[in-house]
Amino acid sequence: MTQSLVGGFEPPYYTAVFTAIRPDAPEGYAETAATLHALVRDIPGFLGYESAGTPGGIGITVAYFRDLEGLTAWQHHPEHLEAKRRGRAEWYDSYRVHIGKVERTYGFDRDRD
């Protein structure tokens, strides 16, 4: 899970919201996730990601991209394609992907000095 929020970017930009239900700690999942998180950083237009999960196996990852070209490049990245294949075959009970265009963004940060 990420421990900080992705900063506000000047809209428009795009999100890929991945929600899934999976058993706890399936074999090979953590290693693959770490590899993918490192690889996506090299995709032109990648802005960052946030993820969270519940003890019951619901996970949510939101990836942010400057443009659809970057998001599409990630969608078709060979190692990402292999992870998606493995996810359907071994890891996930179900998942959904939602692609969105962000047109407005705002937030709040408490000063914790």
From TrEMBL:
Gene3D superfamilies registered for this protein in UniProt: 3.30.70.100
Keywords, in A-Z order: Monooxygenase, Oxidoreductase
Gene Ontology terms for molecular function: monooxygenase activity
Keyword match Iron-sulfur: no
The organism's place on the tree of life at top rank: Bacteria
Pfam family, one: ABM
Keyword ATP-binding annotated: no
ABM domain ranges (all copies): 18-85
PANTHER family: ABM DOMAIN-CONTAINING PROTEIN, BLL5343 PROTEIN
Record's protein name: Antibiotic biosynthesis monooxygenase
Species annotation: Streptomyces showdoensis
